[in-house]
Design a protein that fits this description.
It is a single chain. By secondary structure, the chain is mostly helical. It has one domain. The protein has twelve helices and no strands. Helix 4 crosses helix 11, helix 6 packs parallel to helix 8 and helix 8 runs antiparallel to helix 9.
């Protein structure tokens, strides 16, 4: 893997993790379309590099929401001491915690099955289209609630939706924003809840998978590309959060729906034309 390949994939990860267009799907499709073979031939490192890129996006979201996250930690401690979740910051912390549980359960129990049966290019193409249209439908609904109105029940519902994003092509941010909009949250609030919900799930995955990857060893010559990929992912992720939150204050999510449908159609057309195989 070259430094430039790593930077490209880092930028792809950072942008697509927060834009509702599927980071896992793009991380599969970009090497597939560009015929990058290093990750395909080094399957174990492929998983390690994926963890490294998620570490970058984790850094981006923590830096952007550092004040909110610190307030949530303090609020959580207050709710524990008071044995009540009336505190707004504490309630948001509980929303994120409860919303993380479904993905942890599904990911923990079904990780091997997901790796073996999901993530084929043809599946990603279809899911980009289907879940894009679902976002379009949800975004037609009125914007009734802001972040302060979120409840633990809302967190559970959004968390169940987040578990669906373990299938590449669905989009973690896309499906959680979709769930938030179906619950009546504003475009800005739905995105903020989605981004905050990323933190514990990604932190847990980075620690768990990162330990396994490092203990098993890395191929020679990958330290530089990994560092470049992490940096590119962190910077592009931070910019994606900033840009999306500014954008949705005055615009709908339609541009991302159109993008998803176009990319999905292109993927299916490339497969139908025989340019690339439908599976790996």
């Amino acid at each position: 893997m070259s430094i430039l390949e790593a930077i490209l994939l880092g930028i792809v990860q950072g942008l697509t993790e927060f834009l509702p267009i599927s980071s896992s799907g793009h991380l599969i499709l970009v090497p597939w379309l560009q015929d990058y073979t290093f990750l395909e031939h080094h399957d174990q490192f492929n998983k390690t590099f994926d963890v490294a890129l998620h570490l970058g996006t984790l850094l981006g979201v923590v830096v952007y929401f550092r004040a909110e996250l610190w307030a949530m930690v303090l609020g959580f401690l207050r709710t524990v001491a008071a044995r009540s979740i009336d505190d707004p910051d504490g309630r948001l912390a509980w929303v994120v915690i409860v919303g993380t549980i479904p993905a942890v359960i599904v990911g923990g129990l079904g990780a091997d099955w997901i790796d073996e049966h999901l993530g084929e290019p043809w599946m990603i193409g279809i899911q980009l289209i289907v879940f894009g249209l679902l976002l379009w439908l949800a975004d037609r609904l009125p914007q009734r609630h802001e972040t302060e109105a979120v409840t633990v029940r809302d967190g559970a519902i959004i968390g169940v939706a987040q578990a669906l994003a373990l299938a590449p092509g669905t989009s973690r941010s896309g499906i959680t924003i979709t769930a938030g909009r179906f619950l009546g949250f504003s475009r800005d609030a739905a995105a903020r809840i989605s981004f905050l919900m990323l933190v514990p799930a990604t932190l847990g995955a980075v620690i768990y998978k990162g330990y396994d990857a490092v203990s098993e060893g890395l191929p020679d010559g990958v330290a530089g590309p990994m560092a470049a990929g992490i940096a590119a992912s962190a910077i592009s992720g931070y910019l994606a959060i900033w840009g999306l939150l500014r954008f949705v204050r005055t615009h709908s999510y339609d541009v991302f729906v159109v993008y998803r449908v176009i990319v999905g159609v292109i993927v299916l057309a490339v497969i139908a034309a025989g340019v690339r195989e439908a599976t790996f």
